[in-house]
Amino acid sequence: MKPVEQQTILVTGSTDGLGKRTALALATQGAAVLLHGRDPQRLEAARQELQKASGNQQLETYLADLSSLAAVRGLAQAVQARHPRLDMLINNAGIGGGPRSGAGREVSADGYELRFAVNYLAPFLLTHLLLPCLLDTPPGRIINVSSIGQNALDFDDVMSERHYDALEAYRRSKLAQVMFTFDLAEELRGKGVTVNCLHPASLMNTKMVYEAFGYTQSTVEEGVGALMYLATSPELDGVTGEYFDRQRPARADRQAYDLAARRRLRQLSEQLAGLKVERAS
Questions:
Q1: Of 9-18, 55-64, 98-107, 157-166, which gets the smallest average pLDDT?
Q2: Of 202, 203, 221, which is closest to residue 212 (Cα–Cα)?
Q3: CA of 239: how far to CAs of 10, 132, 134, 195, 281, in Å?
């Protein structure tokens, strides 16, 4: 891997929690960090705070609401326009299981179940759109922030229209991320870009966790340590297609290893995202 201070890294969801602290850690090590958020005031405030804390002047902001696939495309275009070469993509942005009182079914701007759209479909599309930038400057890394909470997808009710539970929808979206990780790793094998995912820590002290559970079990700092290990450890040069529980390779839900299920998810995702991917026969 290149020295961190020579890398340009996009961190989605970097105005709060794990994303913000990870962006700070990368900035402190000298990386050019592209910060993403959906609120312009919070995004600029984060940039100023991280710049002051790290002394790093190479921080840029990118505004996009990932519940809209059009906004995801706009984000990719904005990044490509300024950075035709990208060293790392950390897909961290996401929404949790909602309030403890139980959230009703929500949909994205495109009419898709909201957690599936934001936690999975948005990074699926963003990653594919930014692949030319990542492949232009190997070695590179793609890291998907997933969760140990994973539920198998029901392909007869992917959008949870017949039965809805916000936490279950969240867990399905996180398993979809893992399935995507494994698929993309195989597609990019030997091309200099690795793809891995992780459960950073259990119930970190974030607003999202407090809202959903009312208590925490670990700290954001623990999650940052795990994510930074995947992002910066030389030990992981060439390691791809792995799911990590913190800093250790682990087993995901068994559906993640079902090639037919992964193929079905990939085909559905390409259709939903309006994405045509050319693959070697």
A1: 98-107
A2: 203
A3: 20, 20, 16, 8, 25
Say which residue the tokens 């399935």 belong to.
179
In the chain, what are the domain boundaries? Answer: 4-27+35-47+55-178+185-273
Spatial CB neighbours of 216, under 8 Å, sequence gap ≥ 6: 203, 204, 205, 206, 209, 210
AA identity, residue 208: M
User: Any idea what DSSP says for residue 15?
Assistant: S
Q: Spell out where 110-253 has E strands.
A: 140-145, 193-199, 242-245, 248-249
């954001």: which residue's tokens?
A: 220
243 is catalytic: no
| Catalytic member of 170, 210, 215, 243 | 170
Angle of helix 166-188 relative to helix 259-273, nearest 10 degrees, comes to 100
Topology, domain 4-27+35-47+55-178+185-273: Rossmann fold (3.40.50)
**Torsion sign across C-alpha atoms 110, 270, 35, 105:** positive
Calculate mean pLDDT across residues 8-29.
Answer: 96
